[in-house]
Specification:
2 copies of one chain form a homodimer. The first copy, chain A, is of the alpha/beta class. Helices cover 40% and strands 19% of the residues of chain A. In chain A, helix 11 runs parallel beside helix 12.
Chain lengths: 443, 443
């Protein structure tokens, strides 16, 4: 299952490791974010549950192996290699930060320690899963911050990068702080609260807007949200208001919210519907919500779609998966890459959080002051180390951890100074050694 | 299958239509792009195959129905509605433009004509599927245009918005003109050519770069692509060159390509490897490729990842799905939305392509001059109307159609004047009538 859902070079490398007798050398790879995206002061880790599920179920079917055998890149690969794929199981260890944890550039979100072949193949899937969900959880945290206590609902499946991306975006947005999603599958699969009432097609399918509103109320009662902008927003609001309670409120999906929101509020209030709420939707993001909130508009909820599920102002996260150690020829070698702008740090690491700063240390260090160690065991010898926290626990962790960050980090713009992340002396010494060792080998 | 992979409001509307006795009223919905994204002069339609597969297999399982029954939005829905979901089949008609067709704002890519309940529920999935793949196919066409005959390979799965998005992005990029992908699953599932040799982890896993190169050549022979920038690009190239033929060439993944490419070319040539190719990768997009090509650098192929699969400069497509007709109470009613900035055009449509311009006409029109009609039947009464073109046919269609567009449309920037798209007199008359009819109903 999912055996081929990876870049081809992971599989050619797997073949190469196998033929070179290196497939069982124990390697450590770290997944981390090279640089924080623009305007981000932290990233919320998310996607671990799907990554773990993938690793525990990663297999190669006969049809997949037959396909590989037919590729020109595998003509020199041996039968023994294909047999190894047929029997593939992930039997390694995984250490990870829990979902909902804020992390910073260079900090491992996940460490895989496994025989080289088993650690290499999952690279692509792990990056796509954790990178995407972390990106969306981070965006959600920004939107929620801007909304300043008003509810944020994720509405973006239709603009997600494929339907399945919509399901996972709903999950990540919930971890990042949305109160729920319009994505029904996400509700079904993950237990996330779901929201939704009616679209413009509902309104235009009836002979009159008024009839469409009456029918909606019949169905939804106190959950009714009237979409009032199909023809004329204020007129639509008056019709909705004339129906009286029960209702949840109205939704404004177009037009100038700065003018419409107060006018709509007035119409509802004058009809005695002071409890009726106003939801805004339509091309919202954290910047526009900040403006609406700053203007003191009486809005109770925001439906945020496209911008949230695509993280439109930063639609990718520079997550990478790099080999940091390899046990080869009976001894441990630390590995790194020293090219111009893309260097890596050798050795498996731990991240210690002190509250006002983090330290990236070697995996075995135990610093004074009992800081929080972010990475913990998730899979040991191919078996789940224990139950993973659910999405509600991850969401709580995100909210509580963000609240504990220095206030400057919660800005929608670059924090000055940024959150401090140091390397321990041991890591820096290892970097130095590795560089020297490498120069020796190449000389 | 996939029954819940939709926005909740599609399902509450379905319940509402059912309870109002409207579920079987025949509706037509059109899927189109409201505005072309910045710098796009056309959009390449893609994703139809997945949309069709979804419609033909859309079902609700018992577990899914039980989930819905437990939601507060469905407490007033009747047993008969849930029975209707349990027996759900899409039995309507679908008309669509073939994959690989360039389309413009306002032109339907797909029309669904079906009982209202069956036409409403698929909205979210159809938008996500067709919107995403069309966005990526369009981006690929731009990258391929900039590459001016050099090969473009899609490398982006790790930064795609979920692993499955990576598979579909590979498909869409191929339709848009890439020669293939690094995504093995896309090769397996769709027959797209796959490419890949080795990453930096391969190089650093050996005691020396030289040994890693030797081993790679043992495995891949004439397919060998040496990744030469792990430590020092020119030194790496010299080592690769010293191994002599056979090889495909080298890949440069970092550093200043303007300086490195000529130097690397020189090293290869001086070693007698004039046939060896240079591939560039690493944060490329159409704008950077245009610069590299304009500088006359000797490059043979580009690996394009993140920017391609996320369409980074325009990471969403404003695709919408709007009801345009409804047969209700024994007569056909044309439907539209007239709110401030988001109006829609009533009536099912056809698009006629004249070469230098298009006309959006009513579905039944047959204009003089025998222009190409873009929309054709794909599903009739819930059955596939005929086999869909495969990805190679779609790719060919895209290439040939783009070549026939006015040259200005192939610019990476806004064409001046833009491609002309008119509405027929009949469509405009229908708009006028619909608006008047609506004012009557609401008066």
């Amino acid at each position: 299952m999912h055996g081929l859902l990876t870049d081809l070079y992971e599989l050619t490398m797997a073949a190469g490791y196998f033929e070179a007798g290196k497939a069982t050398e124990k390697a450590s790879f770290e997944l981390y974010i090279r640089r924080l995206p623009a305007n981000r002061n932290f990233v919320i880790a998310a996607g671990l549950a799907q990554a773990v599920d993938y690793l525990l179920n990663l297999r190669f079917t006969d049809a997949e192996i037959t396909y590989l055998r037919g590729l020109p890149q595998f003509t020199r690969a041996s039968q023994a290699f294909f047999d190894a794929l047929a029997g593939f199981r992930f039997r390694g260890d995984v250490f990870a930060v829990p979902e909902g944890t804020p992390v910073f550039a260079g900090e491992p979100l996940l460490t895989v320690r496994a025989p080289l072949l088993e650690a290499q193949i999952p690279e692509t899937f792990l990056l796509a899963t954790i990178g995407f969900q972390s990106m969306v959880a981070t965006k959600a945290a920004r939107v929620v911050e801007a909304a300043a206590g008003r509810a944020v609902i994720e509405f973006g499946t239709r603009r997600a990068h494929s339907p399945e991306a919509g399901v996972l975006a709903a999950r990540a947005a919930y971890i990042g702080g949305s109160i729920g999603t319009s994505n029904t599958e996400a509700g079904f699969r993950f237990g996330i609260p779901v929201f939704g009432t009616a679209a413009h097609s509902w309104v235009v399918s009836f002979a009159s807007e008024m009839e469409s509103f009456r029918r909606l109320k019949d169905l939804l009662g106190s959950s009714t949200v009237y979409l009032v902008d199909s023809y004329d927003t204020l007129e639509g609001t008056r019709k909705a208001a004339s129906l009286g309670p029960p209702l949840w409120g109205v939704r404004l999906d177009s037009g100038n919210l700065f003018e419409l929101a107060p006018a709509v509020r007035r119409i509802l209030d004058e009809a005695g519907l002071r409890e009726a709420k106003i939801m805004a939707s339509g091309e919202l993001n954290e910047y526009r919500i900040l403006e609406l909130v700053a203007a003191g508009l009486s809005m109770d909820a925001f439906g945020v779609g496209t911008e949230l599920v695509t993280s439109a102002d930063a639609p990718s996260l520079g997550a990478v998966y790099k080999m940091v150690e390899l046990e080869t020829g009976g001894k441990r070698r630390y590995t790194a890459k020293f090219s111009a702008e893309k260097h890596t740090m050798p050795g498996a690491k731990q991240v210690f959080r002190y509250g006002d700063h983090d330290q990236i240390a070697c995996a075995g260090e135990s610093p004074a002051g009992a800081p929080e160690a972010l990475l913990g065991p998730v899979i040991l010898n191919g078996e789940l180390a224990g139950p993973l926290p659910d999405v509600d626990a991850a969401r709580r962790r995100a909210r509580e951890s963000i609240a504990r960050l220095p206030a400057a980090c919660r800005s929608l713009y670059e924090a000055e100074p940024p959150y401090r992340v140091d390397y321990s002396r041991e890591v820096l010494a290892l970097l130095d050694e590795t560089r020297k060792g490498l120069e020796g080998a190449e000389a």
